[in-house]
Write a structure and sequence with these properties.
The complex is a heterodimer of chains A (336) and B (257).
Chain A lengths: L2 H22 L7 H8 L5 H35 L12 H13 L12 H26 L3 H25 L2 H12 L10 H17 L1 H7 L3 H6 L4 H23 L4 H14 L4 H24 L9 H19 L7
Chain B lengths: L3 E9 L1 E2 L2 E2 L4 E6 L2 E6 L6 H8 L7 E6 L2 E2 L5 H5 L2 E4 L11 H7 L13 H13 L15 H14 L4 E5 L7 H18 L2 E5 L3 H7 L2 E4 L7 E3 L1 H6 L2 H5 L5 E4 L4 E4 L2
Parallel strand pairs in B: 5-10, 5-11, 8-9, 9-10
Antiparallel strand pairs in B: 1-4, 1-6, 2-3, 6-7, 11-12, 13-14
The chains are: A mainly alpha (336), B alpha/beta (257).
């Protein structure tokens, strides 16, 4: 069997095992046969409710977040020719955070809307992400140069963070606590009814990401070279920006700013598969991202962590050393 | 020599409305190797990028096999003109075979799946460029000379009638520079291609090229054989301020202290 295909199967298998564990493990342990009965729709009492109503949405949320952030990170790293690029880099996560802050912290300023807070948060995050994206798309039309765009994204990010800080300073304690909790990240905040709100945009983003595999491969040898081979580089940039915004915006709204996965997962997939061919690497990154997010979620929910460990702590503890190791291990990105 | 593969008609190159040259008229027939010579900043790279369809001219037209390069789709243009630009590829993680395979981009389908024809074209390109022994190496582990051959193979895999190269001999040692230009000569004459490259290697251009294109400030570009360039003194004039003398009989140049 082809080595790349073997890795894809391995990632998928790991994801499946971790998903089943995610359904079984938690403050209440559900035996695997009962997990199976619940999934088959057979009556099973409290355990079935826990599996279907609580854990299944959480597992599906984690999968969507890991897959989406990984795909977004890979697209960014290729388009910006920068191994340190991630969905957070273009200021998209910061834009989403600003939207969320406006809803959660400045609630007293809003007229009473007959809409649930969590839907409002999601809409605001998406709006924030898209506002930043619109700005970046406009700039991209003017500049069209990766390095400048990257710096622009960073500056937009700083600006958004500063505005969030201003809002934080002016807000009352209860709202602030909610916002800080959201900022720690969690896969548990999306319930079954809201799941399509997360999964539909993420699925669309993933389809876009996979469909870009061929032009992304051409971009590996430089924007100008890609153009000379017939790639419409600006169109690819635009598509990547929208796909990333869709993925990062939606996921940030639902799970908080869980940005580390987006940076680390593509590196891990590259190191495992020893390939930079996006036709392999993109599906690999998506599958590995889902599996890793499930693993992180499992650590958060392990009985001894008491559910008190924030998700972002786990993703950072897992992700940061991995990236360091990959960067230090050699010139894998290989400029010289 | 065969009919013109590429033509430039009254071509004015430049940036932001500021022309770099008088209008350039140019014909590149098949089976020909042409060197673009000129001092730094005279517009060699701009000319190449304009001929390649990557940079819009201020006026005039570029034709490839009779069709306007700036009127055709990007995909169609990529089947007419292949370019080797300066600089190493940003990622060293690609293996040589895959990188050369990227040259098949304009010929493959939406997913970029390569057919038996594509693999044959890649093999052929690797052979022509003398890079067949590198095929499984990662680009990051190749020397500058090897990378240049690989990049040329990438352009050859694109299978176009016109091949343009921007300073393919820069950063190479003497044997590698000679190797690369000889290879370009073989490619031009053996494959019926029109090959044009910019260079600062006067001697290699004089000894191995069919024709020279001299870019000169505020004057029309000059096109002719190396012998004509020396005999007419055009070459000497193009580099007149540089303290270099040319021997039109021996075909060599010397630097004055």
């Amino acid at each position: 069997m082809h080595r790349g295909t073997a890795w894809l199967l391995l990632f998928a298998l790991a994801g499946l095992v971790l998903a089943v564990l995610g359904l079984a493990v938690g403050s209440v342990q559900v035996p695997l046969p009962e997990v199976w009965r619940a999934l088959c729709g057979l009556p099973g009492g409290t355990n079935a409710v826990i599996v279907l109503q609580v854990r299944l949405p959480e597992v599906l949320t984690a999968m969507a977040a890991g897959a989406g952030l990984g795909a977004a990170g890979l697209m960014m790293q290729t388009v910006f020719h920068n191994p340190l690029a991630g969905p957070g880099v273009l200021g998209i996560s910061s834009g989403a955070s600003m939207g969320v802050a406006l809803v959660m912290l400045a609630r007293p300023l809003w007229p009473a809307l007959p809409v649930a807070q969590d839907l409002l948060v999601m809409a605001a995050a998406l709006a924030g992400a898209l506002a930043v994206l619109l700005l970046i798309t406009l700039a991209d039309r003017r500049i069209g140069d990766s390095a400048t765009l990257l710096i622009l994204g960073l500056m937009v990010g700083y600006l958004a963070s500063a505005l969030v800080s201003v809002l934080q300073a002016a807000s009352e304690a209860g709202a602030l606590k909610g916002f800080v909790l959201w900022g720690m990240g969690s896969f548990a905040a999306v319930d079954a009814r809201r799941l399509p709100w997360l999964w539909l945009p993420v699925a669309a983003g993933l389809v876009l990401a996979v469909s870009l595999a061929k032009p992304l491969n051409a971009l590996l040898i430089g924007d100008e070279n890609a153009r000379s081979m017939g790639v419409d580089v600006r169109r690819v940039h635009r598509t990547v920006i929208w796909a990333t915004g869709l993925l990062a915006g939606t996921i940030t709204a639902c799970c908080g700013p869980v940005a580390f996965l987006g940076l680390a997962v593509p590196h891990l997939a590259r190191a495992c598969m020893r390939s930079v061919d996006h036709r392999l690497l993109m599906p690999g990154t998506i599958l590995l991202g889902a599996a890793l997010a499930l693993a992180c979620d499992l650590v958060v929910r392990l009985p001894w962590s008491g559910g008190a460990l924030p998700l972002n702590t786990v993703t950072s503890l897992l992700g940061a050393p991995v990236v360091l190791w990959i960067l230090l291990k050699g010139r894998r990105w290989g400029r010289g | 020599m065969t009919a013109a593969r590429m033509q430039a008609l009254e071509l004015v190159i430049g940036y932001a409305g500021r022309p770099l040259s008088a209008p350039i008229g140019l014909e590149l027939p098949g089976n020909s190797l042409t060197a673009v010579l000129g001092i730094n900043g005279i517009g060699k790279s701009t000319l190449l990028r304009t001929l390649a369809g990557l940079h819009k001219p201020l006026a005039g037209h570029v034709l490839c096999n009779g069709d306007d390069v700036f009127a055709m789709s990007a995909a169609r243009r990529a089947r007419c003109i292949a370019v080797v630009l300066t600089g190493r590829p940003a990622t060293g993680l690609l293996d040589v075979q895959t990188l050369v395979g990227l040259g098949r981009h304009p010929w493959t389908g939406r997913w970029g799946r390569s057919t038996a024809d594509d693999r044959l074209a890649v093999d052929h390109a690797l052979q022509l460029a003398g890079a067949a022994h590198l095929r499984l190496r990662k680009v990051g582990t190749c020397s500058d000379g090897e990378v240049q051959k690989v990049l040329i193979a990438r352009a050859l895999a694109q299978d176009t009638p016109v091949l343009l190269l921007d300073e393919p001999t820069a950063f190479l040692d003497l044997p590698n520079r000679a190797d690369v230009v000889r290879m370009l000569r073989r490619i031009a004459h053996g494959q019926g291609k029109a090959v044009l490259f910019s260079t600062h290697d006067l001697q290699l251009a004089l000894d191995l090229c069919d024709r020279l294109l001299l870019l000169r400030a505020r004057q029309a570009a000059w096109l002719g054989t190396p012998a004509e360039a020396l005999a007419s003194g055009e070459l000497a004039r193009a580099f007149s301020s540089s303290g270099v003398t040319f021997d039109p009989v021996a075909g060599t140049h010397r630097f004055l202290p």
